[in-house]
Amino acid sequence: MRKPETIATAIRIGSPASWATAVEAQQQSNGRFLAATDEEILAAYHLVAAAEGVFVEPASAASIAGLLKAIHDGWVAPDQPWCVRSPATVSKIPIPR
């Protein structure tokens, strides 16, 4: 997507320079790319904050939203171990409401 409209500013840039690397990792790991709405991103953001006391930036919350969809769709078992990378902190961006 060239110019996505989203609260996740790191995603809003569209056509990321690392896209080819992400596709290669997805293919090698038999992974998936999932879309998340702004509402799902905010829900994931608040879930992580409430459950873990950690404030992630919206693009990282989008990863959590994708994980929740994968669990809901049965692609990831609810008791299966998982890891979501969150490279940015909210100290760099406004906190979503």
TrEMBL record:
The UniProt record lists the keyword rRNA processing: no
Alphabetized SUPFAM superfamilies for the sequence: Tryptophan synthase beta subunit-like PLP-dependent enzymes (SSF53686)
Lineage: superkingdom: Bacteria
Domain Tryptophan synthase beta chain-like PALP: 3-83
GO biological process: alpha-amino acid metabolic process
Cofactor annotation: pyridoxal 5'-phosphate
Pfam family, one: PALP
Keywords: Pyridoxal phosphate
Name by which UniProt lists this protein: Pyridoxal-phosphate dependent enzyme family protein
Organism of this sequence: Mycobacterium xenopi 4042
